[in-house]
Structures are given as structure tokens and as C-alpha cells.
Design goal:
The chain is of the alpha/beta class. The protein is built from twelve helices and twelve strands. 37% of the residues lie in helices and 15% in strands. The model has no long low-confidence stretch (mean pLDDT 94).
């Protein structure tokens, strides 16, 4: 079946946006004449592909919405409903699979709604869950099963990334570190349990500095305290946490020698860009949500038996600590040979 007007709902987070890109690339190849629209939260829209992959981006501002009065929320809701109806979508793909995405799919004005296999919070009653042969595999393959259901052929894993030349120039103006071979470390993570100890990052940074490479810390404003702590423990590190936009951080990653972090959004930018990388995993499962499609990615998983517990908080948090700076440095050395 041919579709003329497709809405993709994937609102957050950064890593999940990146994981959705291969499916969007396949959709564009399979439906070259269709209009593709992406519904996303503004803070995660930086890596939604530019035209001709995605024709239009619609933003649902969750941060702004939560601060509204009840009357303002009601008005915003109806404005969004009217906007979605005006687009006359003939297919809605809910790749988010939560209550908030289900509501937006329901008010889209389109009766043809599908989603991926792990639809939660009642979203499976609004959009038909598509369970394909890769339901137990990596999340990228689970998303691709949705477009396979539509008759699309998946020949390769492709990540359509934006042109970041302007952002690269902006990064170069902010620091001298990027003028020489440098390694990017990203210390932050959305879950506390995903975070590698800052003392480990500092020790690793010191080892890399002594190896003759510059070390650049990257991350959002919320990571700035971590950046300050690490630079205090490892003099010589360049701290850009909270000092770049998402696209500027992408440009920084694009030109790095090696990228190192835990399970966090920028990791998947590095994987999509095929950068040499080392990732540390404790509570999450790399075979389901690790760097995918890159032959130069190394994942170090905690040796503890509780690995992959999926807990956001833990009262005996040792999994990430058990991955030592020496273990990471050993893998880093393999990348720079």
C-alpha cells in the first residue's frame, strides 16, 4: 500500500531518537513521494533528520505543558488536535509506546495507527503493536520490524545525520582542544545507576593525557557539576559540559579520536557516526540497547551477577564501579593503534 502522509511519533530521549533513524531512512526509501512528519519534544529534536528525509517537524513541548494551568493545558491540547487534524495523515507510527504518545496518536485524526512491539501504558489499545521476528533483539531491529510490516525492505542500518559543519566551526571557536587529536568523555547519564564514578573518569582522563591525547568532557548543563569535579581531579582536561548545543556536541563527537561513556544519549551519536568508542554498561543490557551497527564499538559490561537489572536506583550500587579505569584504558589503547 502507498502512503502519502505519515506521522512518526518519537518524542524522547536522545538515544531513542537516534535508534529510530534507521527506520525513518527505510521509510523514506520505500515511500519516496510520501510526506514524513516527526512529532518530538523540542529538547530532543536536534537530530531529527533534515529534508529530504523528514519534511516537517511538529513539537510537543512537555516542559512547557507541565507548567501550564488546567485551562492552558486544555487550550494547548485542542490546538495540537487541530494542528494534527489539518495534516490529514493516512498513517501514524507510534515508536514511543507510552500514554503521552497514545493520546497524541488518538487525536491525530488518523484511524490507521501502528506501533512497535513493546507498547506500554495502554498505548497498545490506540495503536496496533507490531511484533516481528526481532522482538527479542536490539531496539533498532524492533523498530525496523514496524517498517518491515509495511512491506519495506531493510538492506542496511543507516543513520541519516545532519550536516554539522557550522557546529564544528562553533566548537573550534570555544576551545583549542579540538585542534589536536582528542578523546571525548561524557560523564553524565539519565539514570544514577548508569553513571560511571567521576573518580574513575578522572583517573582515566589522566591516563589518556599522559598518553599524549587531549581529553574533552562533553554533556548538557546538568552534567556541569560532574565536569567540574573531574577537571578538579584531573588538571589538563578541557571541560565543555553545558557549553555546547546538542548539535555542537555531535560535531565534537564526529571529529574525536575515541569516544568513551556509559549508556547515555551521546553514545548513540558516536555509534551512528561510526566513531571508535568504548562504552561501560551496568544496569542496562547492551544486546537490547547498546551501540549498534558499528564495527568499532567496544562494550565493557560489569562482571557482577546483577548486570542488566534495569534498576534506576540501587542500594548496593557496585556494578559500574567494578569496571575499572585500567580496563577502559586497555580498550582505548586498542582504538588508537
Amino acid at each position: 500500500m502507498e502512503y502519502k502522509n505519515i506521522l512518526i511519533i518519537k518524542m524522547s530521549s536522545l538515544g531513542d531518537i537516534i535508534h529510530t533513524l534507521p527506520s525513518v531512512a527505510v521509510l523514506r526509501k520505500s515511500f519516496p513521494n510520501a510526506r514524513l512528519t516527526w512529532l518530538v519534544h523540542p529538547q530532543f529534536g536536534a537530530f531529527v533528520p533534515d529534508p529530504p528525509i523528514i519534511d516537517e517537524v511538529i513539537y510537543f513541548d512537555k516542559v512547557k505543558f507541565t507548567k501550564m494551568s488546567l485551562a492552558e493545558k486544555w487550550s494547548y491540547f485542542w490546538q495540537m488536535r487541530d494542528l494534527l487534524h489539518s495534516k490529514h495523515f493516512d498513517l501514524v507510527i507510534d515508536m514511543h509506546g507510552l500514554f503521552k504518545s497514545a493520546v497524541l496518536a488518538a487525536i491525530s485524526g488518523c484511524d490507521n495507527r501502528i506501533g512497535y512491539c513493546e507498547m506500554g501504558e495502554g498505548s497498545g489499545f490506540i495503536s496496533k503493536p507490531i511484533t516481528g521476528p526481532h522482538a527479542k533483539d536490539h531496539v533498532i531491529e524492533r523498530y525496523l520490524d514496524v517498517v518491515r510490516y509495511l512491506g519495506c525492505t531493510v538492506d542496511e542500518i543507516e543513520f541519516p545525520m545532519p550536516d554539522l559543519q557550522k557546529e564544528w566551526q562553533a566548537v573550534q571557536e570555544k576551545t583549542d582542544a579540538v585542534k589536536s587529536p582528542y578523546v571525548v568523555l561524557v560523564p553524565g547519564a539519565r539514570w544514577d545507576t548508569k553513571m560511571w564514578p567521576p573518580e574513575h573518569f578522572a583517573k582515566l582522563a589522566d591516563m589518556i593525557l599522559r598518553d599524549g591525547k587531549q581529553v574533552v568532557l562533553a554533556g548538557g548543563p546538568e552534567d556541569a557539576p560532574l565536569g567540574s569535579k573531574i577537571t578538579g581531579l584531573a588538571p589538563g582536561v578541557t571541560d565543555l559540559t553545558g557549553k555546547t548545543s546538542l548539535r555542537e556536541m555531535g560535531a565534537l563527537i564526529q571529529h574525536c579520536t575515541v569516544y568513551i561513556s556509559g549508556d547515555t544519549g551521546p553514545l548513540f551519536i558516536a555509534a551512528a557516526m561510526k566513531r571508535p568508542l568504548v562504552a561501560m554498561y551496568g544496569p542496562t543490557r547492551p544486546y537490547r540497547t547498546g551501540p549498534y551497527g558499528s564495527k568499532d564499538a567496544t562494550v565493557l559490561t560489569t562482571p557482577l551477577p546483577c548486570a542488566g537489572c534495569l534498576k534506576k536506583r540501587c542500594n548496593h550500587w557496585d556494578c559500574m564501579k567494578s569496571i575499572t579505569p585500567e580496563m577502559v584504558f586497555e580498550e582505548y589503547k586498542k582504538k588508537v593503534k
